[in-house]
Structure formats: C-alpha cells, structure tokens
Amino acid sequence: MSQQPQGMSRQTTATPSRDWTWVPNEELEVLMDDSEGTEWAKEVEKDQQEMVKKQRRARSEEERLVWERAEQEQQAQEECKRQRAKEVAKQAASSKGKGCMEELQREGQLVQTARCMAHPWMASFY
C-alpha cells in the first residue's frame, strides 16, 4: 500500500468498479449533510452541562446547609454548657455541698452524650 500524499485523501468514484483515486482534500465532496446531527449533539451537550451545573449547585447548597446545621448545633451545645456551668457554679456556692455539684456534672455529661447520639453525624466532632 502506498503512502498518502500530503493534502490528499482517498475518495471513491461513482463507478461500480470501486476504483480508488487520490484527490486533493479541497475537492472532496460532502456526501452527507449532518448539520442537524451536529446541532442536536450541541443541544445534548449543552443540556448535560446545565444538568451538571445544577447538580453542583444542589450539592454545594446541601453542603452549606449541613455546615450551618452543624454550626447551630455546636452553638446550642456551647450555650447549654455555659448554662450548665452557671448552674454548677451556683450550686457550688450554695450550701448544698460537694456531692450535689458532682451529681450535676455527671448529669451534664449524660445530657451531652444523649445529644450526640441523637445526631450521629455530630459524633465525629467528639
């Protein structure tokens, strides 16, 4: 098989003998108009790109909401700890004594553990 000259392509002739001849690329005939196919392919690609963008936006929004929820939960837990610390300090200052303070501390730990178990995704923060 001979090498193809540069700037030349093979094209079949209209003869039934399937004679192959070498013609310059600029003389090749367009045997099929695939502009509809090209337009359709462009539309499909555009639709796919839009779908990917929507999925990314949705994923980003979901991540943002999860982050906000985690932040709110953390703030709520910190507020509970502050309130509990105030109660413990108040009890320690009162005449009830050391035994009551230890009981309040244990109770605070149980409440915190119960909250973590209510939100398993928060367990990774502890």
TrEMBL record:
Biased composition (Polar residues): 1-18
Region annotated Disordered, chain positions: 1-22, 45-101
Ranges of compositional bias, category Basic and acidic residues: 45-89
Protein name: Uncharacterized protein
